[in-house]
Amino acid sequence: MSKTTEQGITALYCRLSRDDGAEGDSNSVANQKRMLLKYAKENGFVNTRFYVDDGYTGTNFNRPGFKQMIEDAEMGYITTIIVKDMSRFGRDYLGVGKYTESVLPDLGVRFIAINDGVDSADGENELAPFKNIMNEMYARDISRKVRSAHRIRGNAGEPLGPPPYGYVKDPENPKHWIIEPEAAAIVREIFKMSLEGKGNETIARILTERKVLNCTYYWKARGDNRNGRKWQEDPYRWKDATINSILKRVEYCGDLVNFKTYSKSFKNKQRFKNPEEKHVIFYGAHDPIIDRDTFELVQKMHGKTKRRAPKKENGEKSIFADLLYCADCGHKLWFHVNTINRSIRFFSCSNYAKDYRGTCPTRHYIREDALYEVVRLELRRLSAFLREDEEAFAEILAKRTGAEAKAERSVLEEELRKARQRLELVGTLYEKLYEDNATGKVTDEWYSHMSLKYETERIELKVKIEDLDKKLKALRTVEKNNEYFIRAVRRFMDMDTLTAPLLKELINRIEVSEVQGKGKNRTQRIVIHYRFAGYLDLEENYLERNIVQDTRQGVAVEYVPHAAGE
């Protein structure tokens, strides 16, 4: 027994997904645990620890147990990984090869697949790549069969998804939905309030104030833990998007709609929306909660509802729209116009707890005219710096975005050149191998082994070349961005006026803090993050003095540039 085996953790990894059920009980987690533990004891592996993923597919590596195991291996805790067979580790041919042939050897981790006779301590196993390919083909075949069964069931009128809020599965027939009275009453009330002219936000606020459990927590209370976002802490908070979704669901008329979404690949579990012409609708599949006339009337009302255009006296949309963010909670600041004095235009945090039903404790109020002067003065400061010492200005940008980029570019270009040369050579070697096999110089067995190896390398090289190309393009964009940034500052120097297009060219985001202090001692921190350059902390003040601007009668804003090191 080696020293590392005695000191490090021996990871016993088990995985089982729903797709593996066809293989019988031999792959059950309990069976895998018994087998792995028995093997570890018989072969002198101590300090064992199980890492388990029960119910996770092997077509990707987004599994909690697997990720924890790799993290522990990267930290140096694990010295050996043992699995029942290669398919338990994964069914992605390239991914499994990457871990077993590159990642784990680099970490000094021994890999053992018991039933496949794979042990990295014995050197390279020529059959392992074939096993990986077969495992991926199995996953692909299972996916094809599942999709086919899914399509048959969907076209036969069986629900392909869980019932919406207001319905539950019939205990006597899970393929049929029945009305759940408590939730159905809320659905009817939502439609009733909509017909009365109440907007989605108003309906959401009413349900929140009445402390009605939202959909997520309603399902959770019934023991139905559905997938989806669970970040919302308040079980009674309703969102206007939820109300909008409920009002648009034709299922409440008693119809069943299948094939609303689809997945692009058996390796990619993300769902995408299907166009409506691909939906399959079964009318009268279950009892309705809302009559069809009411449903259609609500759809017409929503269809006629348009976003109200700003009144002429309000002026056009603020040039700072979509640029302001709360420095404390990170949410956007919303633009408002005072209803009494239309000349007062201001921003406040969209996540403000008091008025907007959010979680941010303070409003982060800022006047648009005050913000305009502060941003203009900060851009004047940049312009003064550029005018006085363009070389130093460009050097600061280079330090922020391009100093390391040039060195990295040369390294990437050399890697790309070598990868392309190797890809060309592999193609030549493959052709020669084919000719040698055809003329009898190479056996069929050796041809199968080497052709697989060349094909694997060819695929990996193509992926590498594509990745290097993307990185090089990104680096070239960085260098051009510095030129664009300087050009935009020069345009401001010529105009000394802020416009929406200019701000979009120069600024990525502006963070607004809450006002501090009272009376004449009131201060408010504003941090500008420029596009491509981030936050620029100029070492000198390129304005001779602090400037006070009258934004409105009796109210002045003093601009105090942030000094380096403060």
What fold name goes in the CATH topology slot of one domain? Rossmann fold
Strand order, sheet with most strands: 2-1-3-4-5
Give start-end ranges of low-pLDDT stretches: 1-6, 21-25, 305-314, 543-547
CATH superfamily of one domain: Resolvase, N-terminal catalytic domain
Strand content: 15-25%
- SS class: alpha/beta
CATH architecture label of one domain:
3-Layer(aba) Sandwich
The radius of gyration computed from the alpha-carbon positions, rounded to a whole number of angstroms, is 32 Å
Q: Percent range for helical residues?
A: 40-55%
Distance between the termini: 59 Å
What's the tally of helices? 16
State the name of the first-level CATH class of one domain: Alpha Beta
What would the principal axes of the Cα set say about the shape? extended
For the largest beta-sheet, the strand count, sense and barrel status come to: 5 strands, mixed
Q: How many strands appear in the DSSP assignment? A: 19
The overall pLDDT average reads: 78
Structure description:
By secondary structure, the chain is of the alpha/beta class. Among the domains are: 3-151, Resolvase, N-terminal catalytic domain (Rossmann fold), CATH 3.40.50.1390; 157-304, Putative Large Serine Recombinase, Chain B, Domain 2 (Hect, E3 ligase catalytic domain fold, Alpha-Beta Complex). It has helices spanning 3-7, 29-42, 64-74, 86-89, 93-107, 128-155, 181-195, 200-209, 215-221, 240-247, 292-304, 353-356, 368-388, 390-438, 444-495, 500-506, and strands at 9-16, 48-54, 78-83, 110-113, 118-119, 167-170, 173-179, 256-258, 261-262, 272-273, 280-282, 324-326, 333-337, 345-349, 366-367, 507-512, 526-530, 547-552, 555-559.
